[in-house]
Amino acid sequence: MSTSPARNPVPGSPLDSAPVSGDVIEIERALNRIVYLTGRVRQHERLMALAGVSLDRAAVALLRQITDSEPLRPGELAVRLGVEASHVTRQVQQLEKGGYVTRVPDPDDRRAQRIQLTPAGQEAVDRVRIASCQGMEFALADWSPEELRQLATLFHRMVDDFLDRAEADIESTDASRPA
């Protein structure tokens, strides 16, 4: 495992002169491993079988996001998930047909709509979360409660910082466009 700083391997890119710390390289490597392990089709199918639910990965991500917040507009969901708004619109339509979500008026703007879980959607998310957490508890059985708390805190902080950065990048891009 290398912990020495690395340079961007693409000469002339905006990041060419910025060294990257070894710790950040190791975090990036670990995140890629986690994404690979959790994103495998076989892993998702196993989780859905354990939960007794038949949803694709995008649907599960969307339902989880709605569960973890108040009802949101489709555009807000897209930003939080880091996907295009059209992707969320298509997914919401499928989830509506399945009875997992419904559209409700936006209290701040009656012309707009927010996406809300139905009882069936909440039950599906609960089943998926329980199955997922049971697997995680098994894998992390040797970790102390303090280590688990620290990991959860740091993961939430990292995700929040990534989201803040993504929103700042969007605002910067929007501000640089000609009016």
Structural notes for this entry:
The structure is a single chain. This protein has 179 residues and is mainly α. Helix content is 64%, strand content 8%. The chain is built from seven helices and two strands. It has helices at 22-39, 41-51, 57-67, 74-81, 85-97, 119-139, 145-176, and strands at 101-106, 109-117. It has a two-stranded antiparallel ribbon with strand order 1-2. Helix 2 crosses helix 6 (119-139), helix 3 crosses helix 6 (119-139) and helix 4 crosses helix 5 (85-97). The protein is globular, with a radius of gyration of 20 Å. The mean pLDDT is 86.
Distance between the termini: 48 Å
Structural class: mainly alpha
Mean pLDDT: 86
Q: Would you report the number of β strands?
A: 2
User: Taking strands numbered 1, 2, ... along the chain, how are they ordered across the largest sheet?
Assistant: 1-2
Model regions low in confidence, pLDDT < 50 over at least 5 residues? none
Shape type: globular
Q: What is the percent of helical residues?
A: 55-70%
SSE ordering? HHHHHEEHH
Radius of gyration: 20 Å
Report on the biggest sheet.
2 strands, antiparallel
Strand content: 5-15%
Number of helices, where a helix is a run of at least 4 consecutive DSSP H or I residues: 7
Write the layout of secondary structure elements.
Elements: H1 22-39, H2 41-51, H3 57-67, H4 74-81, H5 85-97, E1 101-106, E2 109-117, H6 119-139, H7 145-176
Antiparallel strand pairs: 1-2
Helix pairs in contact: 2-6, 3-6, 4-5
